[in-house]
Design a protein that fits this description.
The chain is α/β, with parallel strands linked by helices and about 240 residues long. The chain has helices spanning about 45-55, 90-100, 110-115, 130-145, 160-175, 190-195, 215-220, 225-230; strands at about 5-15, 20-30, 35-40, 60-65, 75-80, 150-155, 180-185, 200-205, 205-210. The radius of gyration is 18 Å and the shape is globular.
Length: about 240
């Protein structure tokens, strides 16, 4: 579905209403690709994910997600925040809690989750005592085991070392192959190239271009993308 996620006339005003934090007349994502949202810091990438998730209500406009899943246990959207928060429980207790809330026919074992996300050794550690990379892996695990059809990832490897980054990217690819729609926010250009099939570039709350990765990397239409790819600071 070409318009699996359809955004129309989306506006988010600042708290005082003096400017638009988000201003997107039209943006669509298909149902199969890993779509990357990239841009400089403060461009509005995280705000856009929060709007899609419903954590923030828009000042105007609509966000529609088409449903092709009849199983009501299949949630629509889950999100991995850049700065995740957890229950004041151990790693395994956090996983067990989310699995219990999201029971489905898969009957996923928390031990399988711990193993897949390389958290066996950390199972008895309080979640807020984990290292940065361990927290990233736990946050991704919790987002995935909700059994959503859309996974929103906000800088999922921001605090991760190279080994953890490769682990997380591998899992993201696996989830996409399994049929999950991925929207990945990053400012990491090499990561966008590795994972994305299509890339949306956002700057000052506006999507300046959304196209296939090859076009984005080799033939961008707007100067801001060239500047960003060349490492220039965009204000």
């Amino acid at each position: 579905m070409k318009d699996f996620i359809k955004i129309k006339n989306l506006i988010l005003f600042s708290s005082k209403g003096e400017r638009n934090l988000i201003d997107i007349p039209n943006l669509q994502f298909d149902s199969k690709s890993i779509s990357v949202i990239i841009g400089p810091n403060g461009a509005g990438k995280s705000l856009l994910l929060n709007l899609i998730q419903g954590l923030i209500l828009p000042s105007a406009g609509t966000i529609k997600v088409k449903s092709s899943i009849k199983d009501k246990s299949y949630k629509k959207v889950s999100i991995m925040m850049q700065k995740p928060s957890f229950l004041r429980r151990t790693t395994e207790q956090n996983i067990q809690f989310v699995l219990e809330l999201n029971k489905d026919k898969r009957k996923v074992s928390y031990l399988d989750v711990l193993e897949r996300f390389d958290l066996i050794a950390q199972r008895k550690i309080l979640a807020n005592k984990l290292s940065g990379g361990e927290k990233q892996r736990l946050a991704l695990a919790l987002a995935i085991i909700t059994n959503s059809k859309i996974l929103l990832l906000d800088e999922p490897t921001a605090n991760a070392d190279p080994r953890t980054t490769l682990k997380i990217e591998k899992i993201i690819k696996e989830e996409a192959i399994a049929g999950k729609k991925i929207l990945l926010v990053t400012h990491n250009i090499p990561q966008a190239k590795r994972l994305g099939q299509d890339i949306a570039f956002i700057h000052r709350g506006k999507v300046l271009e959304h196209c296939d990765k090859a076009v984005f990397v080799n033939h961008p239409k707007v100067k801001e993308i060239n500047q960003f790819l060349e490492g220039e600071v965009l204000i």
